[in-house]
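Contributing new records

If you add data, match the layout below exactly. Sequence lines come first and carry their own label; structure lines follow with theirs. Keep one chain per record. Anything else will be rejected by the validation script.
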Amino acid sequence: MNLITILIVDDEKSIRDGLKLLLPWETHGFRIIGEAENGLDAISKIKENQPDIVITDLIMPELDGLKLSAVIQEQYPAIHFLVLSSYDDFPYVSQSFKNGAVDYILKPTLTPDKLLTTLINISKKMAKKEQTISHEELLSQQLNRFLSGYDIDNQQTIERYFKSNQYFILYTNFLWYKNKEHLLQTCQTLLPNNLSLTSLPFTINNNEYGFIISTNLTQKELLDMVSSNLVSLRLVEKKALFILSSPIDDMRELKKQLNFLISEGYEQRFYFKQHSIITQQEFLSLNDMEQYDTKKYLRSLLNEDYLMSLSRIEKQFDQLIIKLPRPTLLKQQASSIFYTLFSTLIDVYTETTEINKLKQHFLFSIGEIDYLEDFSLFILTTIQQLKDIITRNNTATIYNDELLNNIVTFIGNNYHTNLSLITLAETFHFNYSYLSSFFSNHFHTSFSEYLNTVRLKEAKRLLLESSFNMSEIATACGYSDLSYFSKLFKKCYGASPSKYRRENQL
């Protein structure tokens, strides 16, 4: 025999000990699986042990029994709880019944027989509920097959279960939630089955979840009922969304309507971040996007006007969003446009680590965005990050150009001296290795080769325009060794200095 498990919650240890000894629990089909001294302690024990019944005091420190009953009702609706009350606790008892308490006992009148009778009555309710749930589970399985397109033998059984010929579909998707179990627990009390409403849950394709509802209530009345019950869920699940269909008067139309909600639900959800429930009538008319005219955009890339490219991208998406495009197409467009931009910047700039990192983050994240507001913020943030990168690179380019000009001028003014890369590094306050690398990257030659080019060009001018002899020209150009100077000159111009003068001087 499976014993019904009980958790005792009271801030007085003597009460807890007394309850544990009050009855031969196992003999009567019950088992005490734990105790807690206040509501906070109880929540931890409930989560760990999942008792069938909680016996709780009302007045306790930390978290009282009233707040505990609200938590049980919201998060653990399958658990029954019995309230122990003093005479002056009655207002609390009344509220606890609203929170789902199944019974209460006054502490001064507590006897073994009264407690046992109360617990047996609760266990009977539990057994009856389990039978009802089993029947509903069987009908739900048949409903799942029906909604999945299979023929079923007992469709009339499902129809008889429903009390009205007016149906609604309340649809959501498990993928929209962090905690599937919490969603299912909340949904156990989302729709009360009573004279005005009956419902059956369905799950198809693993993730499509919801209820088929039969009711004479108007859509507005049903919407108000569900909305009020979703408040607590939305506090925990920030992305929770339910979609309520239009009224359906033929059960055979349920599958068609459900498929429509499923196909449109994802893309509609993109535009309803602040909503926990929307109706089918609120669906937006989403548009297929026109292809982005990339001519001006590509022209600005070819002209290396990257800031202009970003401005055009920003304007483009501002215009697109107003037209309510389908989110999948909007994200594809963003991926295509930004991929081209990222790739171009990586080809152009030497320092690409930051751009590569941003590119990978963008392409990975764009498809995961759930809402329009987050999409817009993501695009604007990416554009600003790229603007910052481009501005820094442009500033660095300007600085490099100034440095190049200063180096060229310095060499032009000092080529005749004993100039070396060490002298240059000391003059411009750079590390020798850095300056050597900088020189190679920007002049595409070594420092010594560039210096020889400057000196020999000046030597050629002096040979043609001055009366200096070979030794004087070599010295004026920074060469102390005439033979070395002559060798370099012939290698560069194909003739010795003296021959060059004879053949070219007017």
